[in-house]
Design goal:
heterodimer; A: 758 residues; alpha+beta; nine-stranded mixed β-sheet; eight-stranded antiparallel β-sheet; 26% strand; elongated; disordered N terminus; B: 157 residues; mainly beta; six-stranded antiparallel β-sheet; four-stranded antiparallel β-sheet; 1 helix; 12 strands; globular
């Protein structure tokens, strides 16, 4: 709006007030003319100019209060609306928070995904039974516990991480080079012996080894030595000390096989005590150190163990087996431990056992109801006899496998101790991802073992949820919308990390589907579940729990637009016709067109739909369908199954009415040049009203209008899902006291309706 | 006093030494973005005559280059010194020098441009020297091995 317009607006206001009073007191026209003639000539000129401007402005709907008809922020220039820019597409998958340095190399593509799926799952339970070790494993000093995948695994480095070396400047195709990572006084046993190392050599493609060229002890996270390639200013190697004192070494953006189109990330997590994890893209391998003095970790030194690679056997060849879960949930279902005794047939009368548990916080054993950390069983075990115990704790372990369960079994003087490690875990968070999700102020993950809620009415944009904008999945055709298939994936992440949760039984359920369930919810009893192919909007809350843990809930919001107002629009259109027939006489048109237009279609938003279109049983999500606080405009409703700003419907009705009333095309066209420049959607709705007034079919034109406006692509409108329910909050009052709960037709429609009734 | 000076003069020792040196330079430039080029040079050192051996490495430092010199025994006799065959190597990495002892695993990052080895420190089995260059650009690398033969003494009494 330019300053001349502002200047005239002041005059318009004064003149307008005068004519309002004139209308209010129904002064005779002649008396008004006399008054007009009595004012000074200069004032007359100004008044006439002001009236002309007012007339032009009046023939354009929307934008009360600012005199401009659309300084709003809907980007379409016709109606003071309030965007909630929540739905820019979120970042796609791929490099997981990696931020390549400036000046990356052209032609690089995202690193490959080694596995499909987006939630962690067990790929392999290890190469050997957990209590039996092989010669190969003993020779290298570690064994694979399990492998898993996790596409959400982040290779991004915390702020306190540091470059390991200047290999980020150039790589090393051969193993020569300084290539050393120094952990200072911290050390790690790499290899089958007791040697501890604080300094390691690394190779470019994800391996660490001892600093001796003659040593073969090494851990490989990547594909092994080969034609790996580092690219200046793009490939980097980092180290950092994790919260649990692990040392993390990360290779970032390494080109596999020298191929600049195949970028990989690798990571090695060295844990205190000798365990470690390796990550190569989304595949994680959890490895356990083999104790050099007790390979099978059964408490019997190798020198005295009749079978040092198998922990099941006592020194005299008899065995004790433990079957226990790897993970027990804190505050969940107690873990069931079964101990089977196989003493010699001829000596079972001499057998006895003691069960102990060590490590963790608040961990206790029980055979029935009383908890303890040690149970003695002065019992003669029949061969093959088994007993069941339970282990539980209210507190999660700080590290994986920190709870050890011991069975000290004896047969006469012959004894052995069999151990089994387990982890007390809790649900740390629920991840929820979707490739077509939009941006939220507070996106997932959801806090673990908490049931957070989201209300379509009170839920704020910063309430935690995942939102999928309609426009990200829908395309409009001549037959209506086509909604693409998509999946929202959710998974429970446990703490501590790096545990084998494959044996945990998980429960999932739809906690809330408002207003109704759409699509399907599928899971296989594991840690992840999927919400598949919803076709209707709504608020969907899901919850899951693992091993009897407290529920963890997360919400997916497919935000619904305002309710369908087809019936209201049809009625209002009919009433607009009545208005034209009964109240737009020739006197009004030809003598008072400017004033008439100003008063009936512009002032104080009398030409606008106002408030929020809604339905009690199918609420629009308010934080995505906001209305302005000052003039109560900007709501999106559903018309003919298509979301559309109600400002566009106001445009349609006003131009239909004034065109049908005979306002000349010059005034109507000129009116569109004032205020914020009309956008394409405003022009479509404006011209649709004119077309119908000139004989076009109303239903066909409305359908064309809503689809055309949607395809133009207003961000706020296109984010909202069509609401199939008919509105139930339309008021016939010309005054609304709660714009969030009610909406009203333009005043000239309601006024006409009242006069018709009178 | 004169006799004393004459005695000192006559009995003065002087060293007659013979030093040989060889310099290698001008490795081809590595290809983009990060190729490594290398060459192997056979070492023939007659330790019976050698007093010390000096290795020098010079190059124009930049932020994207590295030159490495490795010495060791070509155990598999393939003419290429593999990492496992190296006894030690030293390098100039983006302007920083280092020396790595492959046997002890120790690294020294305080070395100068010349490494001096006494003959007794040089293993007779070391028969190959490998020069590697990484990075891009021309850096004018130059590696020199200088063998200082044993001195002999002439005494005039």
């Amino acid at each position: 709006m330019n300053r001349y317009t502002l200047m005239f607006a002041g005059v318009v206001g004064a003149v307008y007030c005068g004519f309002l009073l004139w209308f209010a007191f129904r002064k005779p026209l002649t008396e008004a003319w006399k008054r007009f003639c009595s004012i000074p000539r200069s004032a007359k000129v100004v008044a006439i100019l002001a009236i002309v401007i007012a007339s032009v402005q009046a023939q354009k709907s929307g934008g009360s209060g600012d005199g401009g008809g659309g300084d709003g922020d809907d980007g379409d220039g016709d109606g003071g609306t309030n965007n909630a820019p929540m739905f820019a597409m979120g970042p796609a998958g791929g490099l997981h928070n990696l931020t390549p340095l400036a000046g990356g190399v052209k032609g690089l593509t995202e690193r490959r995904l080694l596995t499909e799926g987006s939630s962690p799952r067990l790929l392999s339970a290890g190469t050997t039974p957990s209590l039996i070790v092989t010669e190969e494993e003993i020779a290298r000093g570690w064994r694979i516990d399990f492998t898993t995948n996790d596409v959400a695994h982040s290779y991004s480095m915390p702020t306190n991480s540091e470059y390991v070396s200047n290999v980020h400047i150039h790589g090393a195709r051969s193993r020569f080079g300084l290539n050393r990572v120094d952990f200072g006084t911290w050390s790690f046993p790499l290899g089958p012996d007791t040697m501890q190392y604080g300094v390691f050599r690394f190779t470019l493609d994800g391996a660490i080894e001892t600093p001796y060229s003659w040593s073969t002890n090494r851990i490989v996270a990547g594909p092994g030595i080969g034609d790996a390639l580092a690219i200046p200013n793009f490939s980097r190697i980092w180290k950092v000390v994790a919260d649990d004192h692990s040392r993390i070494l990360t290779w970032e953006n390494i080109c596999r096989g020298g191929d600049t189109n195949a970028v990989d990330n690798y990571q090695i997590v060295l844990k205190e005590g000798g365990d470690f994890e390796t990550w190569s893209n989304e595949v994680g391998t959890v490895c356990r150190r083999i104790n050099p003095g007790d390979w099978d970790d059964d408490g019997i030194p190798n020198g005295r163990d009749s079978n040092p690679t198998n922990s099941h056997y006592g020194t005299a060849g008899w065995s004790v087996d433990i079957t226990a879960p790897k993970v027990v949930m804190a505050n969940g279902t107690p873990g069931e431990i079964t101990v089977s005794f196989n003493p010699p047939l001829d000596r079972y009368g001499e057998s006895s056992a003691t069960l102990r548990v060590n490590g963790g916080d608040g961990v206790f054993l029980r055979q029935s109801t009383n908890g303890t950390d040690s149970i003695s069983i002065p019992h003669s075990f029949q061969p093959g006899e088994s007993m069941t115990f339970y282990v539980s704790s209210p507190i999660a372990s700080s590290t994986a496998d920190n709870v050890k369960f011991f069975v000290d079994a004896t047969v006469g003087d012959d004894s052995c101790t069999v151990t089994q490690s387990l982890t007390i875990a809790s649900v740390d968070r629920m991840e929820m991802t979707c490739p077509v999700a939009g941006q939220c102020l507070t996106p997932p993950p959801f806090p673990g073992e908490t049931e957070s809620l989201f209300s379509p009415i009170t839920g704020a944009a910063n309430s935690q949820h995942l939102a999928v904008p309609f426009g990200n999945v829908a395309t409009i055709t001549s037959n209506g919308f086509e909604v693409a298939d998509f999946t929202i994936t959710m998974s429970l992440a446990l703490t501590p990390s790096g545990i084998d949760a494959s044996g945990l039984e998980c429960e999932w359920e739809v906690a809330e589907a408002y207003p109704a369930m759409s699509g399907s919810f599928v899971h296989d009893g594991g840690l992840s579940a999927r919400f598949v192919n919803p076709k209707q909007g709504g608020v969907f809350r899901f919850r899951g729990r693992a091993g009897g843990s407290p529920w963890t809930a997360g919400t997916a919001v497919l935000p619904m637009a305002g309710a369908s107002m087809d019936d209201v629009l049809d009625d209002d259109f009919g009433e607009a016709g009545i208005y034209v027939d009964l109240y737009c006489d020739s006197l009004c048109r030809y003598l008072l067109t400017p004033v008439w237009g100003f008063a009936n279609f512009y002032a104080f938003g009398v030409g606008d739909y106002r408030g929020r279109v809604d339905c009690a049983t199918n609420r629009t999500v308010r934080c995505y369908n906001r209305i302005t606080d000052d003039d109560h405009l900007g709501a999106v409703a559903t018309v003919r199954g298509v979301p559309i700003r109600i400002a566009k419907l106001s445009n349609f009705l006003v131009n239909y009415t004034i065109t049908a009333a005979g306002v000349n095309s010059v005034f109507r066209d000129v009116s569109t040049t004032f205020g914020t420049e009309d956008g394409p959607a405003a022009r479509v709705s404006w011209s649709a009203g004119e077309d119908v007034a000139n004989g076009a079919d109303f239903d066909e034109k409305i359908l064309w209008m809503v689809r055309t406006v949607w395809s133009i692509g207003d961000e706020k409108t296109n984010a909202l899902w069509p609401n199939p329910s008919e509105t139930d909050n339309h008021t016939d009052s010309m005054y609304i006291y709660d714009y969030d709960e009610e909406f009203a037709s333009p005043v000239f429609i309601e006024e006409s309706r009242r006069r018709s009734i009178d | 006093m004169k006799r004393l000076l004459a005695l000192l003069t006559l009995s003065a020792s002087f060293a007659a030494s013979a030093a040989t040196s060889e310099t290698w330079s001008g490795l081809p430039e590595g290809g983009w973005p990060d190729a490594e080029v290398s060459t192997n040079v056979a070492l023939t050192v007659d330790l019976a005559k050698v007093q010390e051996i000096r290795f020098s490495l010079n190059a124009t430092s930049n932020t994207s280059s590295e030159v490495i010199v490795a010495v060791g025994s070509d155990a598999d006799e393939d003419g290429d010194l593999a990492y496992e065959e190296a006894a030690f190597y030293f390098g100039l990495d983006c302007g920083s020098r280092y020396l790595v002892d492959c046997t002890t695993g120790e690294a020294d990052t305080t070395i100068g441009e010349t490494i001096v080895m006494k003959a007794r420190e040089f293993d007779p089995s070391w028969n190959l020297l490998k020069i590697m260059k990484r990075g891009t650009g021309t850096i004018g690398e130059s590696v020199t091995m200088e063998i200082e033969n044993k001195k002999f003494v002439i005494s005039v009494r």
